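Bench notes, afternoon.
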Amino acid sequence: MKKLRITVSGKVYDVEVQVLQDDEAIGSPANLPYPGAAALPIPEAARPAPAPAPLPAGGMDPNVIASPLAGTVQKVFVTKGMPVEAKTPLVLLDAMKMDTYIYAPRTGTIAEVCVEVGAAVQVRDPLIRYAPEG
């Protein structure tokens, strides 16, 4: 058993995982078919796809709460003009039969609800817009 710590949407979970096959041992030099095998070139078709580019740091409006995943809006908990505290549930999304709550990152007033129940959203689609602070 291996103990792992996983963070999902800012929540930390400690989990235990049963290891059925240790993939780290497969690629060790002792398990290569012959000396120098690691030096062979990897065919283009077998190379892994490049990692997706990180989200731009300054590209989003700080007053917009964007969808972190693609899914369907199941419930909207707030309305325009409503004051909210940090960690208040704003929207419930369903993605692949999993419910994901989107919480208020800070205290503020809702300026606009950008989605309605039943709407399909993609990553980075605006869900809620805060009124500007100040």
